[in-house]
Amino acid sequence: MHRVATGLVAFAVAALGCIEPSELTQRLSIATGGTGGVYYPYGGGIAKAISDHLDGIEATAEVTAGTVDNLKFIANRSADLGFALADSLDDAYHGRAMFSDFGAVPARAIAVLYDNHNHLVTRLGSDISSVVDLTRRVVSTGAPGSGTEVSAFRILEASGVNPETDIRRQRLGASQSVDALRDGKIDAFFWSGGIPTGAVLDLASTPGFTVKLIPTGGLLPLLQKR
Predict the structure, then answer these.
(1) 150 pairs with which residues across the strands?
(2) In order of start, what are the domains of the chain with their CATH numbers?
(3) Cα separation values, 101 from 13, 31, 76, 126, 214, Å
(4) Spatial contact of 7 and 191, defined as CB atoms under 8 Å apart
(5) What NCBIfam families would the database entry show (predicted)?
(6) SS3 for 86?
(7) Are 66 and 147 in contact (CB under 8 A)?
(8) Cis ω on the peptide bond leading into residue 196 (within 30° of 0)?
(9) Is residue 108 within 8 Å of 15, Cβ to Cβ?
(10) Number of Cβ within a 10 Å radius of residue 34
């Protein structure tokens, strides 16, 4: 597993604050990610700690597509807190890339939680050994609205692979990507998450299936320039 580009996961909140002092007895919504990833169980733990130790506040971890959607939920106040990749949070704050049409998000990071790792996963025995080898293959680039999708596009583009035309793209979350690779419906998938990620561990534990991770660390200099 190789970290590439910005790999920090931040805990974000609207810059102006979503909760007024008079509303402290209301429910607190934490936008996380899919159930097969790291955000959701981590968010569940944070929600429990808040609910157990702050009087009058009941926090709930919400299943979402991930980073991009979480930041949009914070912007429109559908969520009070959210998990986000640091590079996407920077894009959101400045209203660029995936947020160029949506507009700038007045969010701030309140904590850095852990280092994030970009995974490019296939099966042992596959002739895929680099990102370039994904050309004309069926590849999941992550769920729509996820940080995985943002990272996957950047990795593909840094390798000279057009994610719109050079691969047969599927847009699946972690659990769905694992199922599709196991069933032979896709050739590889991207996943951006912490270690360990439950869905990837489940795949590696499948009898008769051996995971092969494709190195992407060599792309770091190119990604840092983008």
Answers:
(1) none
(2) 8-115 (3.40.190.10), 117-225 (3.40.190.10)
(3) 21, 21, 14, 39, 33
(4) no
(5) TRAP_TAXI
(6) helix
(7) yes
(8) yes
(9) yes
(10) 24
Q: pLDDT tens digits, the chain, 226 residues: what are they?
A: 343 333 467 778 776 455 555 555 689 999 999 999 999 999 999 999 999 999 999 999 999 999 999 999 999 999 999 999 999 999 999 999 999 999 999 998 999 999 999 999 999 999 999 999 999 999 999 999 999 999 999 999 999 999 999 999 999 999 999 999 999 999 999 999 999 899 999 999 999 999 999 999 999 888 887 7
Q: Count of residues for the chain?
A: 226
Per-residue H/E/C for 33-50: CCCCCCHHHHHHHHHHHH
Model-level pTM? Answer: 0.86
Please spell the DSSP secondary structure of 123-186, one letter per residue: ETT-S--SGGGGTTSEEE---TT-HHHHHHHHHHHHTT--TTTTSEEE---HHHHHHHHHTTS-
Distance (Å, rounded) from C-alpha 155 to C-alpha 177? 18
Going by C-alpha positions, the residue among 205, 213, 203, 199 that lies closest to residue 183 is: 203
6: phi > 0 → left, psi -120 to 50 → alpha, else beta; which? beta
Residue showing tokens 């534990």 = 205
